[in-house]
Design a protein that fits this description.
- The protein is mainly alpha-helical.
- 66% of the residues lie in helices and 3% in strands.
- It has a two-stranded antiparallel ribbon with strand order 1-2.
- A hairpin with a 5-residue loop joins β1 and β2.
- The radius of gyration is 34 Å and the shape is extended.
- The protein starts with 38 loop residues before the first helix and ends in a 13-residue tail after the last helix.
Length: 340
């Protein structure tokens, strides 16, 4: 009679037979793993690749694009000067608009009903009127006020000047863009400020820190993490929105493109020139936004993720290290027992 210790477990080799162990009938290790097949995903990927390939092929072969004309004008002096005007308008409106918007945001957050009402009314009005209407209004300001001056309110005027001499076409465009941008910047800044925990201000007040320093050193640095993504999108929108100043005959990018294709009739390649420049400028602003957001995220992320440039450098170092290992000579192993 065989003892229980002589019974082999399922899947174990039979003693004395030399056979390999056979898997148990229901052993999970014996099951063949078949990956899921996503036929719809594959079909969608193929369709997208076909469409993208057709689009790129059309760009390269369709003669209507006139890439030679595009190359002649994309870096021409007229277009480059127009790009500079576009950058100036964007920079002025961004800086002045966010400065005024920050003031309006804190006016809305103040405890004074007068300041709250004035700020709310300003934001309501300038968000309700289209930008192009505001620009045309400021362009025709001299029709409403022929002279601008300084003096006693509701009293005599001590000094005055012709409005056209102090507010030119460029000035009217900057004023219109700034006032329009300030209304949106105020809400962006206000949203970032109210995202900061109230306990931060209570702790700062308990330490005796002045109110202005609380805002400048405690509230705003923390609010920047919530402000920057929306502010970056708003600045990019402002860059493209400067094209509406063509109604004021200012030589920005879109206006100059219109002038050029109005003379030579090459509409498509000239529009492609404007498109290329807007894509380049928007990409540069996006890169700047990424690095600014990364800087203000240091308080939350002790070790921020590597930048694309750092990833590229790391990948290049990995490739160099792999190439160096391949170039090293192979040292043969000594046979066992060889003491030489």
């Amino acid at each position: 009679m065989a003892s229980t210790t002589d019974i082999a477990p399922p899947g174990a080799p039979t003693p004395g037979t030399g056979r390999e162990p056979q898997p148990a009938p229901h052993d999970p290790a014996s099951l063949k793993v078949v990956p899921a097949r996503h036929y719809a995903r594959w079909a969608a990927a193929v369709a997208v690749i076909v469409l993208v390939t057709q689009f790129v092929h059309g760009l390269a072969t369709n003669p209507v694009w006139e890439w030679g004309v595009f190359g002649d004008y994309v870096l021409s002096e007229t277009i480059v000067q127009a790009v500079w005007v576009t950058l100036q308008l964007t920079a002025y409106a961004t800086v002045l608009g966010f400065l005024l918007g920050t003031v309006l945001a804190f006016m809305r957050l103040s405890r004074s009903p007068v300041l709250q009402t004035v700020a709310w009314t300003y934001i309501w009005i300038f968000r309700s009127i289209p930008m192009i209407v505001q620009l045309v209004f400021w362009f025709n300001l001299s029709a409403l006020y022929e002279r601008l001056g300084l003096g006693v309110p509701f009293g005599p005027v001590f000094w005055s000047v012709d409005s056209n001499s102090i507010i030119g076409t460029m000035g009217a465009a900057v004023i219109g863009l700034t006032l329009h941008q300030a209304a949106y910047a105020a809400e962006i800044v206000r949203g970032g400020v109210i995202a900061v925990d109230d306990g931060q201000l209570e702790a700062a007040a308990a330490l005796g820190i002045p109110r202005l320093r609380q805002i400048r050193r405690i509230v705003l640095p923390q609010a920047m993490r919530a402000i920057l993504p929306t502010a970056g999108n708003e600045i990019i929108g402002l860059l493209k929105g400067t094209s509406v100043v063509y109604v004021m005959s200012i030589g920005e990018l879109f206006y100059q493109v219109q002038v050029v294709y109005g003379r030579n009739g090459r509409v498509i390649p000239l529009l492609l020139v404007a498109t290329a420049w807007y894509v380049v400028l928007t990409s540069l602003l996006s890169v700047a936004q990424y690095y600014v957001e990364r800087r203000y995220a240091r308080g939350a992320n002790r070790t921020p993720p590597p930048t694309p440039l750092q990833r590229a450098r790391r990948f290049a170092r990995t490739l160099r290290a792999a190439a160096a290992r391949r170039d090293q000579p192979v040292i043969p192993l000594k046979p066992l027992g060889d003491s030489r």
